[in-house]
Amino acid sequence: MSGSFDTIDKSAEPKPKPSATNEESFELSSVVVEYDGKPNRCTIYPNEATRLQRMASWITADADTFVPLDEMC
Q: Whole-model pTM?
């Protein structure tokens, strides 16, 4: 068997996670699903995400737990 670590596919390596100080920005979208007899659910996800990425890059919570940003100040 022969080979070299130099031949490892670098694109398969995990990318560094962005930090809170990173100046990168992105837009989010949201969708509210209404249920009968249960709380409505709001899901937030990045606009530019592919369908596959959305499955790992989202947050969902009961819709009534969200408040308008201007009410937080």
A: 0.54
